[in-house]
Amino acid sequence: MTIADVKSILNAELRCGNSLDAEVHNACGSDMMSDVLAFVKDQSVLLSGLVNTQVVRTAEMMDMVCIVFVRGKEPTPEMIALAEERGMVLMTTPLRMFTACGLLYQNGLSGGDA
Amino acid sequence: MHYDVPGDDFTRAGEASGAVKGKLKQLGFPADVIRRVAIAMYEGEINMVIHAGGGTADVEVDPDCVRITLTDQGPGIPDLDLAMQEGWSTATETVRNLGFGAGMGLPNIKKYSDTLDIDTAPGEGTTMRMAVFVNQ
């Protein structure tokens, strides 16, 4: 699916980024950046309820292209500026983590290799 | 390449790793090498900010190898074997609330680098030398 599909499925609002037609195949959901760095491999979408600049930094190091903030969390202006610099898409959804992950999985995004 | 890693501003942790990642991209290094360097260095940078009040990062780039040296004047690591175990962490609740401190930092650095050498002693700071080879 595309990032635009992710946005639509999650009823999300865009906060920055314009590469909505980029294809994504894998996602992961975590509030623990340590775990994202340790266990994630080749996922392009990060779902998180954590809001600080290190979420964007972590996604950057992992070559992720899109971050979805769950539970209506809003990225800070610093996070948006950093994501824009890196060409990353940030969006926010009112959905909770479990529901957001479930909907994306149901619509074809995988969790990647264990 | 030399970078100062400020210890008083968590929001800036990762600036050096991000800059190195950009340089390696410009130099045309393979994507998997760049990612391994970025993750290992970023984890080290976060550790310096969380535990040691910041430090310095020096990066040497050869066509076949990227070498990173992270140096801090922090409290040192009292039991390195314990610190290398997954899940062991001395991070504060505040750090955990920021999304770190799961005890995966050092194991992760070891996982993503090809060589890792740590000089540390209580009260004497820590120097971490890591290398990522291009053809491994």
Spell out the blueprint of helices and strands.
The complex is a heterodimer of chains A (114) and B (136).
Chain A: H1 3-9, E1 13-16, E2 27-29, H2 33-39, E3 45-48, H3 53-61, E4 66-69, H4 77-85, E5 89-92, H5 97-106
Parallel strand pairs in A: 2-3, 3-4, 4-5
Antiparallel strand pairs in A: 1-5
Helix pairs in contact in A: 3-4
Chain B: E1 2-6, H1 15-26, H2 31-52, E2 54-62, E3 65-72, H3 80-83, H4 93-97, H5 105-112, E4 115-120, E5 126-133
Antiparallel strand pairs in B: 1-2, 2-3, 3-5, 4-5
Helix pairs in contact in B: 1-2, 2-5
Describe the structure.
- The complex is a heterodimer of chains A (114) and B (136).
- Chain A is an alpha/beta fold and 114 residues long.
- Chain A has a single domain (3-106), classed as HprK N-terminal domain-like (Udp-n-acetylmuramoylalanyl-d-glutamate--2,6- Diaminopimelate Ligase, Chain: A, domain 1, 3-Layer(aba) Sandwich), CATH 3.40.1390.
- Chain A contains 5 helices and 5 strands.
- The longest helix of chain A has 10 residues, at 97-106.
- The radius of gyration of chain A is 12 Å and the shape is globular.
- The model of chain A has no long low-confidence stretch (mean pLDDT 93).
- Chain B has one domain (2-133): Histidine kinase-like ATPase, C-terminal domain (Heat Shock Protein 90), CATH 3.30.565.
- Chain B has a 5-stranded antiparallel sheet, covered by helices on one side.
- The A-B interface holds A 31-35, 37-38, 50, 52-55, 57-58, 60-63, 78, 86 and B 10-11, 13-14, 17-18, 21, 31, 35, 38-39, 42-43, 46, 86, 98-105, 107-108, 111.
